[in-house]
Amino acid sequence: MRRNGFTLVEVMVALAVVAIALPALLVALYQQVDSTAYLRDKSIAHMVAANKLVELRILSKARQNLFTGTDSGVAQMAERDWYWWLESQPTEVEQFSRVKIIVARTEELQEQPLYTLVAFLSADLQVETEVEDAGEGAGDAGEGTGDAGEKVEDAGE
Questions:
Q1: Strand-pair partners of 81
Q2: Domain ranges, ordered by start, for the chain
Q3: Superfamily for 8-128+148-154?
Q4: Looking at residue 88, what DSSP letter applies?
Q5: pLDDT, tens digit (0-9, with 9 covering 90-100), for 99-140
Q6: Would the pTM of this model clear 0.85, i.e. be above it?
């Protein structure tokens, strides 16, 4: 005659299954949280590198010459310090410079950056002013030279 309920063996097997599955579930959950934090840090590092590139463009335009050489520093974003290194060098193409910006969480992690931005900047920094004759106003409306042909590549990991 069988009673309603579980036997001791059935309960022990169920507990063994739970004891094996629960740590695996917790490890998977921890990895997901860790991946989310990594992606957040990588996104912020991208913003730091993009800000440095814009800053370089503005300074180059104001000085009327491209920066060449290396520079480094600390930028604060999202209430944290981010270490960046900038390397700018001329390319084989005249009037173009290759800029590489590396961003890491700590100064010691320069060899393992969170984000690397590579951009090519034009040395054509002339400010063009357009003078229109009173009689020739309609011919060139809206056309201009743009921003001297930049190309930005994401070389992040």
A1: 76
A2: 8-128+148-154
A3: GSPII I/J protein-like (3.30.1300.30)
A4: E
A5: 999 999 999 999 999 999 999 999 876 666 666 655 544 444
A6: no
- Joined together, the tokens standing for residue 135 give 């009689």
β-strands 69-77, 151-154: how paired?
Answer: unpaired
52-58: long-range contacts, CB 8 A cutoff, minimum separation 24: 52/84, 52/86, 52/101, 52/117, 53/99, 53/101, 53/117, 53/119, 53/152, 56/86, 56/88, 56/99, 56/121, 57/121
Residue 60 contacts residue 67 (beta carbons within 8 Å)? yes
Instruction: Measure the CA–CA gap between 83 and 75, rounded to whole angstroms.
Output: 6
- CA–CA distance, 152 with 98 (Å, rounded to integer): 10
Average pLDDT for the chain: 84
In this structure, what token pair is assigned to residue 133? 């004759």
Q: Are the beta carbons of 86 and 60 closer than 8 angstroms?
A: no
